[in-house]
Automatic annotation (TrEMBL):
InterPro entries: Leu-rich_rpt, LRR_dom_sf. This is LRC43 protein. It comes from Formicarius rufipectus. GO terms for cellular component: cytoplasm. PROSITE patterns: LRR (PS51450). Signal peptide: none annotated. It comes from the Eukaryota. Keywords: Leucine-rich repeat, Repeat. The gene is Lrrc43.
Length: 319
């Protein structure tokens, strides 16, 4: 589950070890409400060998320090480490769930977005790329979410995600999943995503361009759309039809939609018959290596008793 993966992730960060966490190295009056280990409230004596928060932070930031964070660490790693120095009591009381506004759990083997995710009461951004998630229950998502990224998972059905979707969501990333049209098109409307600005549906198995556009037209705030990698993108009038059908779109497939392009494709939306539901792919094989050429057979005389060996070859293409 996502909650279990997050707890394991916190364990790997070592947030309870020097210079992070609570310990004898903490300054007595840090934050004005915490005493070091072994000192009772009301005692004024200074404790030896304590470090100031500035010194502890320097141990994390100085590249020559043995506790320095690696240069390729994520901003999330750095933030949690520094919070564990400045306010280590948060991790003892589990208040860290109430502090995080962004959570990035990429390639952690997550299969389920469980109910424990609701503990992140201020979460606005949830990045879950490259996991093994096939379904997302929207009831387990914080209502504060504005960004939900599910790229490179195995999501094939949006029904559970759309039962109680986060009302303020602005970006939904579903690229490189297993969505098949047209059964999923009905979940991509204003009724479910009233504040959606950016939508990534790239590299799925969406095939019905007309049906999908009829649903996307209801997304009044949609400005960024990615559909490349779907079979429907093979239709010759694909881009022009989308540009003319979605007049508020600013970026399509990572390419800016300019006024010249809008004028060029003006009127295509009123001619759906031009956007055929089928596409023809012509494959030409220019050269094959390791295969005996037909010229070798021509060297045999008509009366030759040499055995003739016939070989067959085939090439397969997967779409």
């Amino acid at each position: 589950s996502l909650s279990a993966a997050f707890r394991e992730y916190l364990g790997h960060l070592g947030l309870q070890d020097f210079p992070c966490g609570l310990g004898s190295w903490n300054k007595s009056c840090l934050n004005g409400h915490r005493s070091p280990r072994g000192v009772q409230p009301g005692q004024e004596e200074a404790v030896l060998d304590e470090e100031t928060p500035e010194v502890l932070l320097e141990l994390l930031r100085d590249q020559h320090s043995p506790w320095a964070l690696p240069p390729d660490c994520s901003p999330q790693d750095r933030l949690l480490k520094e919070v564990a120095v400045l306010a280590p009591e948060l991790f003892h009381s589990s208040k860290v769930y109430q502090v995080l506004k962004s959570l990035r759990m990429v390639d952690k083997g997550v299969e389920e977005v469980d109910e424990g995710v609701l503990r992140f009461q201020q979460l606005e951004e949830l990045i879950l790329s490259a996991n093994q998630i096939s379904r997302v229950t929207s009831a387990n998502l914080p209502r504060t979410l504005k960004v939900l990224e599910l790229c490179c998972n195995t999501v094939g059905d949006l029904q559970d995600l759309c039962s109680q979707p986060p009302p303020e969501l602005q970006h939904l990333g579903l690229g490189h999943n297993r969505l098949c049209g047209p059964s999923q098109d009905r979940f991509l409307t204003q009724d479910f995503w009233p504040n959606l600005i950016s939508l990534d549906l790239s590299f799925n198995n969406l095939t019905d361009l007309l049906g999908l556009v009829s649903q996307l037209c209801s997304l009044q705030k949609l400005r960024i759309l990615v559909l490349q990698g779907n079979p429907l993108a093979l239709i010759p009038t694909y881009r022009g039809f989308l540009v003319d059908s979605l007049p508020k779109l600013c970026i399509l497939d990572d390419i800016y939609v300019g006024s010249d392009e809008r004028q060029q494709f003006q009127g295509l939306a009123s001619q759906p018959e031009l956007s055929r539901s089928e596409a023809r792919v012509v494959v030409s094989v220019g050269e094959m290596k390791g295969v005996p050429g037909p010229s070798a057979l021509q060297l045999l005389d008509l009366g030759s008793e040499a055995p003739v060996i016939t070989c067959s070859y085939f090439v397969t293409y997967e779409f």
